Structure formats: C-alpha cells, structure tokens
Amino acid sequence: DQQVKQNSPSLSVQEGRISILNCDYTNSMFDYFLWYKKYPAEGPTFLISISSIKDKNEDGRFTVFLNKSAKHLSLHIVPSQPGDSAVYFCAASDTGSQGNLIFGKGTKLSVKP
Amino acid sequence: NAGVTQTPKFRVLKTGQSMTLLCAQDMNHEYMYWYRQDPGMGLRLIHYSVGEGTTAKGEVPDGYNVSRLKKQNFLLGLESAAPSQTSVYFCASSYPGQIYEQYFGPGTRLTVT
C-alpha cells in the first residue's frame, strides 16, 4: 500500500513554461515533505522541503505547495529549463521517524528546448 | 569534500554469495541510511543508523545486515544473495538537525544471477 503516490510517471514541458509535479499521500501522520531530483547514474539531491505548518515554500524557480486537507502537494518550476530534465521524487516523513523518508515512485520531467 | 562515496559502483553476484557494500561520508554526519531502488519504484529504506555503534531496521530489512563501527562509515552486508536483491543501492547521510535533507551517494548497481 503506497503511502506516497506520484501518479504521473512522466511529464513533458516546453522550455520557459511552468512545470507542475504532483504528489498525494495517505498517512495523516506525515508532517514534513520534500522533493528530490535525480539525474541518471547519480544519487538523488535534495531540492526543496515544506513543513506541515506551512502551505507554501519558495526557493528561486522552485515552489512547493501543500494542501493538508487534500493530502496533496505539488512542485512548481518556473520557468522550466532543459537542465531541469530529471526524475523528481516526492518524499514524506513524520516527526520522530529519525529521518525515515517514504518516497514516491518518481516523475520523469523532460523540458524541451 | 568528497561527500558520500560508495564502493563498489557495480557488482555481479551468484545466488548464495555474500558481499559488503561500503558507504563513507566526510561531512561528519551523525545519521546514515541505506536505501534500495528497484525499476519503476521509489527508494525504500533498508537500515539506518543515528550514530556510531547504532543501527535500526527500516522498511525492507530482511536479507541485509549493517554495521556502523566508525562514524564516517556505514556497511551493508548481504550474507546469502538472492535474485530479489538485484537493485541499485543508495547510501545517504544527514545532520541531526536536518535529518530529512539527506545527502546521497552515487549508488551501487548490484545484479544477482
């Protein structure tokens, strides 16, 4: 039973446009959410995070939105760049889990020039 | 700083053989983790450690053992490899104050025939 779901395996976007990646979760105990980015043959790298006490967190071109009532979060990339092409993993955790992250299956983003 | 390094990068084992994967970090991180990633899946936590001399089970610990004799190293052992353990293994580490923002190694691709 997946606790973190990324229902879109892939997404293709034109350079300069907005990329929106979605993530749903089922465990109401989750109170911290993260996005990781992964290039082929490399380990994931941390991108941005949000605590459940917030509904938005912004870092440059990346913004994460959290809707707790819907158990849904999204990552917005504006404007999208070809270098953003990668697999994006949504992850979630709860306080006291000692960093145990539950990952989604990932969404492969392709940004076309 | 090398960050998080993993040895070896690739390995092919026959069923029943044993091996040890080595993870090393030079960031003085307290927490370390071992994940596996199967095709089309997210990362799943195998074991983790919150400090030198400590280990704990994650989501999928069966068939693996770990040791953290030194703060900078985290070893993952397979005593009797099975084809179901064919996967890409990632090690990660983090600060106690930022346990969710984990730094990942480049991965070890293991094939068990």
What does this structure look like?
The complex is a heterodimer of chains A (113) and B (113). Chain A is mostly beta strands and 113 residues long. Helices cover 0% and strands 53% of the residues of chain A. Chain A has no helices and 11 strands. The radius of gyration of chain A is 13 Å and the shape is globular. The N and C termini of chain A lie far apart (38 Å). The mean pLDDT of chain A is 95. With 113 residues, chain B is an all-beta fold. Chain B has no helices and 11 strands. In chain B, the strands form 2 sheets. In chain B, strands 2, 4, 5, 6, 9, 10 and 11 form a 7-stranded mixed β-sheet that branches. In chain B, strands 1-3-8-7 form a 4-stranded antiparallel β-sheet, with no helix packed on it. Chain B is globular and about 40 Å long. Chains A and B meet through strand 5, strand 9 and strand 10 of A and strand 5, strand 9 and strand 10 of B.
- What integer value in Å does the Rg of chain A equal? 13 Å
Give the SSE string of chain A.
Answer: EEEEEEEEEEE
Major sheet details of chain A: 6 strands, mixed
Number of helices of chain A: 0
Number of helices of chain B: 0
Secondary structure class of chain B reads mainly beta
Oligomer: heterodimer
Task: Quote the distance from N terminus to C terminus of chain A.
Answer: 38 Å
Biggest interface pair, counts: A-B, 24 and 26 residues
Q: Per DSSP, what share of the residues of chain B sits in E-state strands of 2 or more residues? A: over 45%
The percent range for helix content of chain A is: under 10%
Q: Rounded to an integer, what's the Rg of chain B over CA atoms?
A: 13 Å
**Which term fits the overall shape of chain A?**
globular
